[in-house]
From TrEMBL:
Superkingdom, natural source: Eukaryota
Function: Catalyzes the synthesis of dihydrouridine, a modified base found in the D-loop of most tRNAs.
Domain DUS-like FMN-binding: from-to ranges: 29-234
Protein EC: 1.3.1.90
UniProt keyword list: Flavoprotein, FMN, Oxidoreductase, tRNA processing
Descriptive protein name: tRNA-dihydrouridine(20a/20b) synthase [NAD(P)+]-like
Assigned protein family: Belongs to the Dus family. Dus4 subfamily.
Organism expressing this protein natively: Chrysemys picta bellii (Western painted turtle)
Gene Ontology MF: a single term: tRNA-dihydrouridine20a synthase activity
Keyword Isomerase: no
InterPro entries in alphabetical order: Aldolase_TIM (IPR013785), DUS-like_FMN-bd (IPR035587), tRNA_hU_synthase_CS (IPR018517)
Reaction(s) catalysed by this chain's protein: 5,6-dihydrouridine(20b) in tRNA + NADP(+) = uridine(20b) in tRNA + NADPH + H(+); 5,6-dihydrouridine(20a) in tRNA + NAD(+) = uridine(20a) in tRNA + NADH + H(+); 5,6-dihydrouridine(20a) in tRNA + NADP(+) = uridine(20a) in tRNA + NADPH + H(+); 5,6-dihydrouridine(20b) in tRNA + NAD(+) = uridine(20b) in tRNA + NADH + H(+)
């Protein structure tokens, strides 16, 4: 599928970071395993979604197997800007995966937020919030090995109980050249509990790069409220257009 897409998608490249500096409210469709595939992305783009993520893809499988690539990743001409989200725990593997998708996407995102037991046991997802140096190493590798400097490298995190650790993680990621950080404002144990928007606000105040607030966005109004609650300026911040996917709500991580 990737090879079929080469000619049709290469010319459509967009810089997703420009969206955050456009001065407009940026509507983003969150990564969702089994949902945010090409058909779903095509649908939400018709409803003015600005930026779409693929579901989380295991980078090691993606690099190793053509079959995994063909089943996990499809795209099309209008499917831009597109961020491919990976689960990874090794810098070289993540950067190999990033180099494979680079011609067909606008950036990659490292999942540091999945709290599922199997993922944490493999060293993927939310356990990475406790390994800032590994996150830095992974980001740095992608930055160094993907030739296009406009290809974005972002991370999606959950918060610590001790917010200082989250701010420290974010600062380290920022120093390594991460393009933006999405903050799902819950800790690893929390599922449907209220989102800690105050924590997102503090993170935003301590960082210069765009911060995307995530959690409990079910309507556009919710997104606007969160925008005010987190005190961000609307120019370099944005919110998941998760309201696009309220029909897909089967479980939450
Ligand atoms: C069905 C489903 C699949 C999800 N898959 C992913 C995923 O692949 N990667 C990821 O980072 N988050 C994933 N999430 C989490 C969402 O991206 C988002 O962080 C979460 O839904 C926000 O919390 P909320 O549901 O309370 O709004 C998924 C959520 C749902 C409901």
């Amino acid at each position: 599928m990737i090879s079929d897409a080469i000619e049709t998608t290469q010319c459509q490249r967009k810089d997703p970071v420009d969206l955050f500096h456009s001065g407009h409210f940026v509507k983003i469709c969150a990564p969702m395993v089994r949902y945010s595939k090409l058909a779903f992305r095509t649908l939400v783009r018709k409803y003015n979604c600005d930026l779409c993520y693929t579901p989380m893809i295991i980078a090691a499988d993606f690099v190793r197997s053509v079959k995994a690539r063909d089943s996990e990743f499809t795209t099309s001409k209008g499917d831009r800007p597109l961020i491919v989200q990976f689960a990874a725990n090794e810098a070289q593997v993540l950067s190999d995966a990033a180099r494979i998708v680079c011609p067909f996407a606008d950036g990659i995102d490292l999942n540091c937020g999945c709290p599922q037991r199997w993922a944490m046991a493999e060293g993927y997802g939310a356990c990475l919030i406790n390994k800032p140096e590994l996150v830095q190493d992974m980001v740095r590798h992608v930055r160094n090995q993907v030739e296009n400097p406009r290809f974005s490298v972002s991370i999606k995190i959950r918060i610590h109980d001790d917010l200082k650790r989250t701010v420290d993680l974010c600062r380290k990621a920022e120093a390594t050249g991460v393009s933006w950080i999405t903050v799902h404002g819950r800790n690893v144990e929390e599922r449907h509990q209220p989102v800690h928007y105050d924590a997102i606000k503090i993170i935003k105040q301590n960082l210069s790069i765009p911060i995307v607030a995530n959690g409990d966005v079910k309507t556009l109004k919710d997104a606007e409220n969160i925008h005010h609650m987190t005190g961000t300026d609307g120019k370099n911040s944005a919110y998941f257009g998760y309201y696009f996917s309220k029909f897909a709500r089967k479980w939450t991580f």
